[in-house]
Amino acid sequence: MNHTETLLLDLFLVFAGGKLFAEIFERLRQPAIVGQILAGLLLGPSLLGWLQPSDVLAALAEIGAILLLFTVGLETRPRDLLAVSGTATLVGTLGVVVPFALGYAYMRATSHAGTESIFLAAAMVATSVGVTAAVLKDAGALGTQMARVILAAAVLDDILGMIVLAVVTSLSEGRVHYLQLAIVAGEAILFSLFAILLGARIVRRLEPHVARLRTSNSAFVLAVVLCLGLSLASVYVGMAAIIGAFLAGLALADQSERWRLAENVHPLYEFLAPFFFVYLGVQVNARTLTEPGVLAMTAVVTLLAILSKLIGCGAGALRLGWREAVRIGVGMVPRGEVGLIVAAVGASLHVISDRVYTVVLLMSVLTTLLAPPALRALLPGKTTARDS
Amino acid sequence: MNHTETLLLDLFLVFAGGKLFAEIFERLRQPAIVGQILAGLLLGPSLLGWLQPSDVLAALAEIGAILLLFTVGLETRPRDLLAVSGTATLVGTLGVVVPFALGYAYMRATSHAGTESIFLAAAMVATSVGVTAAVLKDAGALGTQMARVILAAAVLDDILGMIVLAVVTSLSEGRVHYLQLAIVAGEAILFSLFAILLGARIVRRLEPHVARLRTSNSAFVLAVVLCLGLSLASVYVGMAAIIGAFLAGLALADQSERWRLAENVHPLYEFLAPFFFVYLGVQVNARTLTEPGVLAMTAVVTLLAILSKLIGCGAGALRLGWREAVRIGVGMVPRGEVGLIVAAVGASLHVISDRVYTVVLLMSVLTTLLAPPALRALLPGKTTARDS
User: Fold this and answer.
1) I need a labelling partner for A289 at 20 to 30 A (CA). Which of A75, A105, A201, B173 fits?
2) Is the pLDDT of residue B385 over 80?
3) Cα–Cα distances in angstroms (integers) from residue B341 to residues A49, B123, B158, in the given order
4) pLDDT in tens, A26-42
5) What's B79's domain CATH number?
6) What residues of B are in contact with residue A263 (Cβ under 8 Å)?
7) What DSSP string describes B41-92?
C-alpha cells in the first residue's frame, strides 16, 4: 500500500467508523463520544488492527481537539467564566491536589521509586477539557452554571498540570530551578488572563478592518488564524495547544453571531473531532491488560482517579449544593491529553516503566469512557437532552 | 522543537501565510492561488526554509485537494458534463497525445535514453484538475460551457494519464501486460461512468433514510463519507484520489442545495485548500535551478508543456470557435498531481535522473503559476470577475 492509499483508508475508517458508532450510541441513548472511542478501540491495535497510531493521525487528532475547544470557546463568554472564577479556582486546585496526593500515596505504599511515584501522581491531575466539553456540548448544557465551573476549572487544572509537569521534570533531573518554574507559571497565567481580559477588546478593534479584506469569508479566515496563532503561542508558554484554542474562541465569542463563526467552524469541528476521539481509542492497546500486574494496577489507579476528582472537585463546589457538587465532580473525572503528555515525558526520561505508562494510558481511556454516561444521567432535564 | 510545536507552527505558517499572499494577490488583481503557491516558495526550502516537506503537510495537502474537487463536483451537474462529452473527449485525448509526442521527441533529440524519454513524456500529459478548477471557481466561471469542457477534459486526461503511467511502467519493466493494462483502463472508465450515470440516482434513493439518522447534520456527514469512500475507491482502481472526490461531488450535486452541502463543505475547503496550494510551492526547491543544465531544460520543457496543450486542446475545441478554443487551451495548461506521481514512480524505478525529476517538478509549478493569470485575462466579462 502506498502513502495515498494508507492515508485515504485511515481517513475513511476513522470518519465513517467514528460516525457509525456515534449513531449507534445515540440510539442506545449513550454519549456519541463514547461510541467514537470504542470505534478506535475496535479498529485499532486492541482488536482488529486496521488502524495504527501514526504521525498523520496524531496530527489530525490534535487539529480535531483544537477545533473542539475553539468551538466551545466560541459558545462561552469571558464574563460568564469570570463570574464563576472563585468556585472554579477552588474546584480546579483541589482537583489537582487530591489526585496528586492519592496517586503518590498509592505508589509509595506499593513500593515504587520516588520519581516514578511523582510522575504517575502528576499524570493523574489534569481533567481532559476536550472530553468534558464535548459531553456538555452534546447534552446542550454548555450554557449552565455547572458547565462554566467545569470548563473554567478544567482549563485551570490543565495549566496547573503543565506547571506540575515542569516541577516533576526538574525534580527528576535532581535540581529544582525555582526561577524557571516561576517563569513558566507566570507566563501561563499572564497569557491566559491577558487573552480572557483583553482578547475580546482587541478583536472588537479589528472589526472595522475585517470587512475591507478582499479574501472571501474574511471574518472566518481571521478567526482561524487567531485560533492557530493562540494555540501555537500557548505551546510556546508551556501550556497545551487546546488551551490557546479555547482562549481564541473566548476572545471571539461576542463576534460569533455577527461574523457567522459558529456556522463556519461547526463543519470543521464535525469533520475533525472524530479524529480526536477515535484516536484516543487507537492509541490504546488493550492487549497489554493481560500483561502481569497491569490489570490490577489499572483497576486501582482508575478507581483512585475517579474518587480523587469526585472528592476534590466535589468539595470545591460544595457551596453550590450537593447535587451540583456531584455533577461537577463527575464532570471533572475524564483524563486525557495532559496526563498522556506527562506520561510520555516520564517515559522519555526513563523514570517511568512501560507498565506504568500503559496504566496511565488505560486509566485515561477508562475515565473518559465511564464519566460521560454518568454525567449525562445526572444532568437536569436529562430526558430532553437525551432525546434531542 | 517537539512534535506539537512543529505541527502548530506549520499549520499557522501555511494557513496564515497562504491567506496573506492570497489577499495581496487579490489586491494586485491576480489569482489568489498564484499567491498561495508563491507563499509556499517563499516559506519553503527555496527561500526562507521555515517549512519543509513532511508526511503531515503532504496529507493535509491531499485532503485539501480532495475537498477542492468535491466542492467543484457539488457545483457541477452530471448532465452538463455529458452534454459536452464529445468536445471534452477530443480535447482530453489530443491534450494527452500532443504533449506526449512533443515531450518524447524533445528528449530523444537531446539524446536521453528511451525509458527516461517515455517517463518525461508521460509526466507532461495530465492537466491539474485542482488548479484549473480553483481558477474557474475563483473567477465565478464554473457555470460556463468552457468550464465544463475544461473540467470534463481534465478529468478524462487524469484518467488517461494514469493509464499511460501503467503502460510506461510495464514498458520500463521490459514487458507489457496487455491484459493487466486493459483491466486498469476498463476499471477506471467503468468506475467513472458508473459514478456519473448512477451516482445521483443512488443518492436520491438514500434521501428518505438520511432524515431518520440521529447524528446531527446527518446529510453532511453522509456526503463526507461518500467523498472519502469514492476517493479511496478511485485509488483502488488506479486513478488519483481527487477524481473520486469529484465524482462524489457530481453524485450529490442535485442534493447540494436541499441538504445544505455547499455551505457545510465550503468552510472545510477554505480551511484545507491553502494546504494544497502552499504545499505545491513547498515541494519545490528553486535552488536546484542553479544546477548545471536544469535551468535550460526547465525552460524548454515548460515551453513545450504550454505549447502542446494550447495546440492539442485548442485544436480539439476548435468547433466552439477560436476564442473559446484558446481559453480552453490555456485552461488545460497547468500540470500538477498526476505529473508529479508519474515522475515519482519513474524516480523510484531509477529510470529517470534527479535532474529530470526536478525539471518535472519545476515545470508543474511554472505552468501552474503562468496559466491562471492568462486564463483570467482571457475570460469574458473579466473586469467584473476580477473586481468581485
Assistant:
1) A105
2) no
3) 29, 8, 11
4) 898 888 888 999 999 99
5) 1.20.1530.20
6) 263
7) HHHSTTTT------HHHHHHHHHHHHHHHHHHHHTS-HHHHHHTHHHHHHHH
Cell numbers 464535525 correspond to A270
Q: Decide if B12 and A229 are in contact by the 8 Å CB cutoff.
A: yes
Q: Give residue B96's pLDDT band: very low, low, confident or very high (50, 70, 90).
A: very high
Contacts of B26 in chain A (CB under 8 A): 214-215
- Write out pLDDT tens, residues B317-334: 999 999 999 999 999 999
- B214, A16: Cβ pair inside 8 Å? no
Within 8 A of B3 by CB-CB distance, chain A residues are: 55, 58
Q: B44-47 long-range CB contacts below 8 Å, 24 or more apart?
A: B44/B281, B44/B282, B44/B283, B44/B284, B44/B285, B45/B282, B45/B284, B45/B285, B45/B287, B46/B281, B46/B284, B46/B285, B46/B286, B46/B287, B47/B286
- How many distinct structural domains can be found in chain A? 1
Closest Cα in chain B, distance from residue A317 (Å):
33
Residue among A7, A27, A224 minimizing CB distance to B15: A224
Asked, for residue B254, whether it belongs to a domain, the answer is yes
What's the pTM value of the predicted model, to 2 decimals?
0.88
Task: Name the residue among A11, A55, A232 with its Cβ closest to that of B228.
Answer: A11
Query: Please, are residues B351 and B168 in contact by the beta-carbon 8 Å criterion?
Result: no
Helix (H, G, I), strand (E, B) or coil at B332: coil
H helix runs in chain B, sequence order: 3-27, 32-43, 55-74, 78-83, 85-109, 114-123, 129-138, 145-172, 178-210, 218-236, 241-252, 261-282, 294-316, 322-331, 337-348, 354-378, 382-387
Q: Does residue B255 lie within any of the structural domains?
A: yes
Dist. CA A281–CA A39, nearest whole Å? 7
Shortest CA gap B235–chain A (Å): 7
Q: Do B27 and A59 touch (CB under 8 A)?
A: no
Nearest to B26 among A8, A16, A215 (CB): A215
Q: Which residues pair with B127 in a beta bridge?
A: B335
Domain assignment of residue A83, given as a range: 3-387
> A8 vs B32: CB contact, 8 Å cut-off?
no
Residue B374 located in a structural domain? yes
A267 with B270: Cβ contact below 8 A: no
